[in-house]
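step: validate -> pass
step: tokenize input -> pass
step: predict -> running
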Amino acid sequence: MARRPARNASEKNEPRRPFLEIRNVTKKFGDFVALDDVSLEINEGEFVCFLGPSGCGKTTLLRAIAGLDFQTSGRIYQKGRDISDVPPAERDFGIVFQSYALFPNLTVERNIAYGLVNRKVGRKAVNDRVEELLALVGLTGSGGKYPAALSGGQQQRVALARALATSPGMLLLDEPLSALDAKVRERLRHEMKDLQRSLDITTIMVTHDQEEALSMADRIVVMGDGEIEQTGTPMEIYRNPVSAYVADFIGAMNFLHGKVTRKGRVKVGPMDIAVDGSASEFKTGDSVVVCIRPEDVAVRDAGRARSNKFAMAIRDVEFLGSFCRATLDVAGESEEQLIADFSINLMRDYKIERGAKLTIALPRERLQVFRGMGEMAGA
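step: predict -> pass
step: emit ->
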């Protein structure tokens, strides 16, 4: 399998040059704006996920990169070459579609060899390459089978091998795992990430599955309404969302609706919540949402917390294997609820069960404050 030359130590420490540059790309379908002035740089060897709900523009952006749907305006560069108006056959990429798009009348080996044969590669070189790719994706001995005889996971591997057959500089993946069941999907995403690392191939994957994006991507591009909402590493996106939209789309999140009472304080029902600098931009009386991840709700030593210490009733407990998710009622007239994720050990130590009372703390450093409902996903 063709691999990129190994980098020496000094090269590994140097920032990689942009492999793909997307500059002010807009795509319109009639009056509908599918992409609105999108700009993005993707580095060589990166695994980048376009993440967002249906209709956010992620697939449209992938198709513009591939030349399957030309942008209305803006430019796209690959390794400095302007490919904005170049047809797909003249662009340097391999692609795996959601449906895999295998030829049902061709064997596995002929499916994989399709692109090589079209390039008039010699028969021996084709056969050697096909055998190499079959071994790479774990399908040695399956070359004579037809797609209908393969499982969904095996078909996905064949589609991946076919995309890699011509040693492209870039791999495009359009929801490649969405048709598979959960266990197969989990196994294959690890295999695909390991393969991408070993080949050091620049990869862009479209997905609506946040777990896929968090576990596979070097960088995530969160999209909404044809725009990029946030770009960052999985940890940056998860821990520091820039808006309520991103916070709502990535992982589980509590949204406590309240009003700013003074600098650094938000009133949510009966709770007076102290927040850090994240609320400094808001004025007294502004409607805001205070956000906290379920795993950041503290119980151990909560009684000693200097601020944001509250007594709550446990409405429900859901067992989720390695942890439990508790639904807590905010006291008073507020209809707000809080979900909290607790370890099995904590559940036992604090005798947490439905109907019990519990003192929790909301650590100030884990709270984020955003403007009200207008930024929420789907609002």
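step: describe -> Residues 133 and 161 are 6 Å apart (CA to CA).
step: cleanup -> pass
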